[in-house]
Each structure stands twice: as structure tokens, then as C-alpha cells.
């Protein structure tokens, strides 16, 4: 076990591994894409706020996308906006 | 391994920013990551990452493509020697096949990589691995007599218009290999369809070449008159069911053998790379549309569309259906991502394939067009399944 990235970042190929492992049934690949296009409402509808930040999606991603980090930051930005 | 690492380490400075070959950095990185995983440490949690990256994932697909590739090489040589009346021993046939197929693969890879490198250098990103698969899939869908310049044109079209103008691997909505093939199919139909293109006939002074027909089983079925059962005329033309299953008949280089595609499907499904839902859906689709037509034909006795009288199982083993549904339809980028959508997508590919084969005399083969057509519907299928799924979700905002 090491902290190597085991690869380089690539565009999402929609393999769906993240959706398979997600414990709260979010669809991280689609949620992540809607975040990238600033469709925050859609991301919320996908259950963004249910995310438990377990990081499994980031772990399995063969494209080495920082899924969990993206979701976490979006949640943070959303909470700050609500205050 | 040490000397390879030393070699890359000593050359790295030239490709870094400000170096002599800064523009070719993507090429350097592609070559280096072929040998070593890059030594990048994780910045954000979770700090432990799965060892599977896109390069390994695509390599598994390449491994799964090996059975059809090697069988394709053998079969190309076999058909060529058979038609030209040359000896049929295993090694002569295999060498002949290599001689015919390797130039096609080399041209496909080198021209495709040229475009990949051009786009990666202009956009300043790394070369994506998706092309490794595209570059091998494309030649396997071509007839063995294809002129090499057409291979170059086809793969250029596939890579540029099928993929790169949309942003590269992961952002294309059509399968690039099939886009290239469709382009060639409609631009140069003389080299992509008919009876003469499927077998590479050598110039020899025997009479065997004259008696040779070269028709594919699909062509035999499509031109069927209404007097005879298609199965009978297939057998007359030399295509028994087991021969169609094992694949020793003329056709595109890699598509003929259903057995080899099953071997590839086993590798892809057991490693979890490709979706079994799409493959099973496709098989179900073929059976679902071909069986009612078959039964209807049995009862009515009318054979206005003679190909309807063909037993459905023949549709599974003839032509490129097995190859298409195993390797092309399961491309995750252009296929839908949701599970039910995958079933529907595969099912529709099977149905459309049979419909095109049976009812459209202009296209004896329908797999390519039906996969491309369903690629267009993949986002729509995803959209509706996500919508249905979100309706069930308990909102917490």
C-alpha cells in the first residue's frame, strides 16, 4: 500500500465503477459532470448532500478523477451560500 | 528495468518546460508510462488509490481482442490461399495472413497516433489511451483487400470527427472505430461491400481463382430466392452452422469467428471491463425480433421477405454481430451508463441489426449502423433512467 496515484488523470469514460461502490446511491459520474457544468440544482437532485465523503468513488476511479474532493468542495460552497 | 528508468530520467529535462523538445512532452510521457506508472503522490484524500488506471483498463481490452485478431490473421491467410489455390498448411497460411493484415494494423496505429499526438500537443494534455483500442478495432472491421490509403483516411476521419473535435476520449458520443468504418463504407462502397473484397486473391496461374465466388454468408442469405430454404442454400455455398460459428469463412478481418468473440467476451465480463447487460441485451434483441418473424413465416408460408425464414440462431453467428456486440457496443464512453438503459441499448442494437439485415437489401450487414444509431440514443436513455431514479429518491433539501 502506498500513496502513489497509480496513473494519471484522464477524462471520465463513464465506466460506472463509482456508481457501483457508492454507499448512498449517488451517481458520482453524473453528479460530477453536472457540477462541472455549474448545474448545482441537478447535482442536489442527484443527492449531493447525502454524500458521506467516504472516498470510495475516488478510490476506484480508473481515470483518477478527484470525485470525492469535487463533491466535498461543492457541498462546502453550497453551505456557505446558504448562510 | 534499471537501465530503462535511467534512460527516461536522463531524457526528462529535454521535455520539461523550457527544454528543447517541450512540444513533444505528451509523446515522452506516453512512452514513459508504457513502462512505469508515474511517480505522482496523491494530494487529496483518500490517499490510497486503486492500481487500475486507464492504461491498464485499455490493455485488458487489447488482451481480449487477441483471440479475434490471431484468428483473423489465420483466417485471412487461409481464405486467401484457398481462393488462390495455394498450400493450406498452418504456418504458410498464418504467415500469409500476417503479410496481409499487419500493414493494415500498422497504418491504422501510426496514422491514428499521429493525430492523437497532434491534438495532444496543441491542447497540451496527455495522450489518452482510448486510441490503443480504437486503433486495433478499426482494422479488424475492414475487409482484407482494403487499400492502405483508405485505412489511413478512415482512421483519420474516425479519430478527428468521431472523437477529437468533441474533446478526445471520454467526450465522444460515437464509437470512433465505427465512425471511421461508416465513413469508408459510404465513401468507398466499392472497396467495402460486394463479393470480391473479402478475400485477398494472389496472382497465381491456377484455375482455382476463377471458380471462386467470395460471397459472405450474409450476402448468400440476402440474395436468396423464394424457392429454397436459406439454410439449404447456405450449406450449398459451403456455410454450415458450425463453420459459421468457428469462423472459417470470408468476411472482415476480425469479425468472422463467433467462438473467438465469446472468448473475448469472457475476458471482458470476468474482469468487469465491459457490461454483460449490453451483450445479453443484444442477443435477446436478435432473438426477440427474429423468432416472431421466423414463426410467422412458418405459419403463413409466404416468403415475400425470404430472409425472415432464416432460423434466428444464424443471425447470431453470421457477419459481425458477435464482434460488434462484444467489442463495439460495450465501449463505455458511447454506451449508456445506467443499468436498465444498458439492457435497452443492447436490446435495440439486436433488433435493429436484424431489421436492417432482413428488410434492407442495400445493406446485407446491419451491426455497424445499428450500433452507431443507438450511440445517438444513449444519452437519452440515460436521461430518462436518471429521471425515473431521482423520482424515487427522498429529497433532503
Describe the sheet with the most strands of chain A: none
Q: What is the 3D form of chain B?
A: globular
* Rg from alpha-carbon coordinates of chain B: 23 Å
Oligomer: heterodimer
Largest binding interface between chains: A-B, 38 and 44 residues
Question: What share of residues of chain A is helical?
Answer: 40-55%
CA-based gyration radius of chain A: 13 Å
Helix content of chain B: 55-70%
Question: What are the segments of chain B in which pLDDT stays under 50 over at least 5 consecutive residues?
Answer: 205-211
Low-confidence stretches of chain A: none
- Structural class of the helix and strand makeup of chain A? mainly alpha
> Kindly, what is the distance between the CA atoms of the first and last residues of chain B, rounded to a whole number of angstroms?
55 Å
Instruction: Indicate the overall shape of chain A.
Output: globular
Kindly report the average pLDDT value of chain B: 85
| Number of E-state strands of chain B | 0
How many strand units of chain A?
Answer: 0
Number of helices of chain A: 5
Topology of helices and strands:
The complex is a heterodimer of chains A (83) and B (397).
Chain A: H1 17-21, H2 28-36, H3 40-45, H4 56-60, H5 67-82
Helix pairs in contact in A: 2-5
Chain B: H1 2-15, H2 25-35, H3 54-84, H4 90-123, H5 130-140, H6 148-162, H7 176-187, H8 189-192, H9 217-222, H10 230-236, H11 241-246, H12 258-270, H13 276-300, H14 312-317, H15 321-328, H16 339-359, H17 367-392
Helix pairs in contact in B: 1-2, 3-4, 3-5, 3-12, 4-5, 4-6, 5-7, 6-7, 7-17, 12-15, 13-16, 16-17
Amino acid at each position: 500500500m502506498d500513496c502513489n496515484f497509480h496513473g494519471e488523470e484522464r477524462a471520465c469514460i463513464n465506466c460506472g465503477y463509482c456508481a457501483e461502490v457508492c454507499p448512498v446511491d449517488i451517481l458520482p459520474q453524473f453528479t460530477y459532470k453536472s457540477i462541472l457544468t455549474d448545474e448545482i440544482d441537478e447535482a442536489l437532485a442527484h443527492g449531493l448532500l447525502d454524500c458521506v465523503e467516504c472516498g470510495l468513488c475516488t478510490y476506484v476511479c480508473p481515470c483518477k478523477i478527484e470525485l470525492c474532493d469535487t463533491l466535498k468542495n461543492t457541498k462546502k460552497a453550497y453551505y456557505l451560500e446558504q448562510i | 528495468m534499471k537501465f530503462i528508468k535511467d534512460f527516461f530520467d536522463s531524457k526528462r529535462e529535454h521535455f520539461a518546460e523550457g527544454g528543447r523538445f517541450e512540444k513533444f512532452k505528451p509523446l515522452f510521457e506516453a512512452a514513459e508510462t508504457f513502462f512505469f506508472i508515474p511517480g505522482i503522490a496523491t494530494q487529496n484524500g483518500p490517499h490510497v488509490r486503486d492500481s487500475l488506471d486507464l492504461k491498464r483498463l485499455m490493455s485488458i481490452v487489447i488482451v481480449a481482442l487477441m483471440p479475434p485478431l490471431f484468428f483473423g490473421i489465420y483466417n485471412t491467410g487461409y481464405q486467401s490461399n484457398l481462393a488462390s489455390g495455394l498450400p493450406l498448411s498452418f504456418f504458410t497460411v498464418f504467415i500469409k495472413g500476417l503479410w496481409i493484415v499487419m500493414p493494415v494494423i500498422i497504418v491504422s496505429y501510426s496514422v491514428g497516433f499521429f493525430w492523437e499526438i497532434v491534438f495532444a500537443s496543441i491542447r497540451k494534455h496527455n495522450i489518452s489511451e482510448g486510441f490503443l483500442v480504437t486503433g486495433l478495432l478499426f482494422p479488424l472491421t475492414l475487409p482484407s483487400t482494403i487499400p492502405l490509403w483508405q485505412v489511413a483516411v478512415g482512421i483519420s476521419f474516425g479519430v478527428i470527427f468521431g472523437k477529437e473535435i468533441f474533446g478526445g476520449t471520454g467526450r465522444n458520443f460515437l464509437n470512433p472505430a465505427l465512425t471511421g468504418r461508416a465513413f469508408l463504407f459510404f465513401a468507398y462502397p466499392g472497396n467495402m461491400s460486394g463479393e470480391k473484397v473479402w478475400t485477398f486473391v494472389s496472382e497465381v496461374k491456377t484455375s482455382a481463382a476463377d471458380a471462386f465466388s467470395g460471397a459472405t454468408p450474409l450476402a448468400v442469405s440476402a440474395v436468396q430466392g423464394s424457392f429454397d430454404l436459406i439454410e439449404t442454400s447456405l450449406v450449398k455455398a459451403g456455410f454450415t452452422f458450425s463453420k459459421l460459428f468457428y469462423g472459417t469463412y470470408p468476411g472482415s478481418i476480425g469479425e468472422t469467428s463467433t467462438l473467438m468473440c465469446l472468448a473475448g467476451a469472457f475476458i471482458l465480463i470476468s474482469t468487469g471491463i465491459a457490461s454483460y447487460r449490453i451483450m445479453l441485451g443484444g442477443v435477446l434483441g436478435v432473438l426477440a425480433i427474429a423468432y416472431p418473424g421466423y414463426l410467422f413465416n412458418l405459419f403463413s408460408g409466404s416468403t415475400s421477405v425470404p430472409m425472415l425464414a432464416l432460423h434466428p440462431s444464424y443471425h447470431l453467428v453470421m457477419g459481425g454481430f458477435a464482434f460488434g456486440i462484444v467489442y463495439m457496443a460495450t465501449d463505455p464512453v458511447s454506451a449508456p451508463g445506467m443499468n436498465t438503459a444498458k439492457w435497452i441499448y443492447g436490446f435495440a442494437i439486436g433488433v435493429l441489426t436484424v431489421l436492417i439485415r432482413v428488410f434492407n437489401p442495400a445493406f446485407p450487414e446491419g451491426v455497424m449502423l445499428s450500433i452507431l444509431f443507438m450511440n445517438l440514443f444513449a444519452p437519452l436513455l440515460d436521461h430518462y433512467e436518471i429521471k425515473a431514479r431521482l423520482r424515487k429518491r427522498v429529497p433532503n433539501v
